[in-house]
Amino acid sequence: MKAALIYNPRSGRGKAKEKLLPRVLSRLEEAGMDVTPQPTERMGHAIELAKYAAASELDVAIAWGGDGTLNEVACGLLETSTALGVLPGGTVNVFAREVGIPLKLEGALDTLVSGQVSRIPVGFAGERAFLLMAGVGLDGEVVYRLKAGFKDALGAVAFWLDGFRLLASNPLTPLRIRSGGREILGTGLIAGKIRRYGPRYFITPDAGLHEPELDVVVFKGTNRRDYLRYLAGVLGHFHLQFKDIEHFKTDALTIEVEGASRVRLQLDGEPAGYVPIELSVRDNALAVLLPPQVA
After folding, report:
1. Domain of 185?
2. Residue 293 lies in a domain
3. CA distance 59 to 4
4. Over the stretch 183-230, which tens digit does the pLDDT of each residue have?
5. Domain count across the chain
């Protein structure tokens, strides 16, 4: 089996991937993989490396890093036969947690070499893919403003702290969401392709990795007190009980801004432009090496 090991040397909490690289290569080669290590040099470089791996007809392109690296490698492999391998090495590793890949290196390597290939649906915002979630409103704004050093130091906690700060200073812009015959006015939205949002939070609990649909949660509150209440609900796993939250599943929706304001979009925890946008799902768009119990 021929593989590319695409990794971000800077992702994670100070992990020295170059020091770990010999151990990783040794374990993969023991399992019969012919592996070429390919470190990324800039944002978007992993997409290029993954496209080259697919064009070279490699069996697998392994994303070693956080969810941002994973997203880029996945984008480079869309609609090809080269499978995405997952080796968690970032700050939070949401996808790995969702599918049961161990976060410790040895366990993750064992799971990788025993994985089975499965084709999964992928979410799209316009033509840009996402594996985890799309977020609009306060969620998108926090991702844009969160400083990388702050995130690396505090992990997922940094996201919530910055969210509290923005609640005190940012107006909530009205959004119009349309899906099929449904039209909803809200101020924020999360569309999940998987259940998890962060290590222990399940904002879109009905999402399914193998389902060609998005699990959508629309927040309709208009002030900071509403969002503090939503946060408490998410932390306590009861947010879907609120009457001013709309929850549904769909394979396509559009999001527009009411007025002239600019509202930001995030995909898989990375900045991804502005609303208006169309979200959709393409079935069987990506081959992934998954743990046998999930594949």
Report:
1. 130-283
2. no
3. 9
4. 999 999 999 999 998 888 899 999 999 999 999 999 999 988 898 898
5. 2
